[in-house]
Amino acid sequence: MTAPPIRARYCLVDHHGTPVTEASYASRWQLVQFGFTSCKVVCPRALAKLDDALDRLGTDAAAVVPLYVTVDPERDTPQRLKAHLDATHPRFTGLTGTAAQTEAAADAFRVFTRRRDTPDGYDVQHTAITYLLDPSGSPARHWPDTHDAERIAADLTALLR
Q1: What does the pLDDT look like over 103-140, one tens digit per residue?
Q2: What is the pLDDT of residue 161?
Q3: Where are the domains of the chain?
Q4: Which one of 20, 105, 121, 146 is most buried, by most CB atoms within 10 A?
Q5: DSSP one-letter code for 149
Q6: Range list of β-strands (E), 18-110
Q7: What's the Rg (C-alpha) of the chain?
Q8: How far does CA 2 lie from the centroid of its chain?
Q9: What is the pTM of this model?
Q10: What's the pLDDT at 1?
Q11: Distance from CA of residue 93 to its chain's centroid?
């Protein structure tokens, strides 16, 4: 897949409470996945797949900063993101912010989101695409949820070399 038609801009807070933008990670490739910590199936599967893809890169993975941008800022505070990612996917940095900030980030990446009430509270439906920004912060590639870790790792290897 070639670079998607996105703006790839965000102004959020990482899971340490530090304000960040796409420029905060200049000189590194940014692997960007949208999701939320209360997701029970799709998001955990996507993060596990991306961990697998990064594992396949070996030492080349150091050139990539994996980012997990919440679509549920009401529940996903920096503290909750940190606890969740430290326990499940420690190589990822969680990003959150106000509802307006996370909505602006989703819009910039053309990520669809919709809150849906459930018997247990609510769920957030969202686009399941992984985005890659090059070291200048420009869109480089994207992968739909249907692509496996092997394919993503092969594409990343080709781009990183």
Answers
A1: 999 999 999 999 998 888 899 998 899 999 999 999 99
A2: 85
A3: 11-160
A4: 105
A5: H
A6: 19-21, 29-35, 64-70, 93-96
A7: 15
A8: 18
A9: 0.94
A10: 53
A11: 8
